[in-house]
Description:
Blueprint: H1 12-19, H2 23-34, H3 37-43, H4 85-88, E1 118-121, E2 126-129, H5 133-136, H6 155-164, H7 174-182, E3 193-195, E4 221-223, H8 241-260, H9 266-277
Parallel strand pairs: 3-4
Antiparallel strand pairs: 1-2
Amino acid sequence: MTKNFFPCGQTRREFVWQMGGGFAGLALSSLLENDGFFNKHLNSAENTSPSAPGTGHFPVKAKHVIFLMMNGAPSQVDTFDYKPELQKYAGKSLPEDKRYINSGNRKVGFLTPEFRPFKPGGESGLMISDFFPNVRKHADKMALINSCHADSHAHGSALVAMNTGSTFIGRPSLGSWTVYGLGTNNQSLPGYVVMMDKRGGPISGEPNYSSGFMPSTFQGTLFRPTGNPILDLQGPNHLDRKAQRRQLDLLAQLNHEHLATRPGAQELVSRIQSYELA
């Protein structure tokens, strides 16, 4: 792709950005100074990574978040989502006023009650199926959300909705929001990793764990289910660690010099951080 340069030797984007350093930039600098913007960022200069731990609105207690997206797992109505109305309508079709999901003109079957009875567990009385009698003993340590529902009957879009909150592709996944909100203490390792089943990933693929409209810094790092989890992490045999370290340091210096001439290029920041992490 050929850059469209102005006579001054800059691209249009660079020219427009540098115009912001004129009189309009002086006014903006004054406003930011009054708001304490520069002091705030000067005091937190060591936390330049977007994924660095932040203070947040409340003290952070969580250290790890493990989310098991079990595609094809047992139905929620047979495990943790107690629905006594299923007994009432057992063997009957769904009432007309309850048919809020489009079936795609496919024949709708009959309602089936749970296969095993539900019983309350713990002091909270949380209803849990007899499929999990031992889990029921720890009911007071669990937090279940049974109010979720989907706007799509199709597995692909419903999975994307579960992982991103929307049936439309392009929104950040739960893992991306978690790293965005909590950050990660270890800047030498990815804050968000995705481990696939060796039999394959979820329907719709990458949108289930992408960063969506967020910077790619918050993108999930995919671990391969077989062989090396991440390819090309091992250096070549003819290069010792010290020599490789010198090469990487030189590359980092060149990358940051390049970045210094393009402030605000968030995708470039994310790409450099990805290289340095590897």
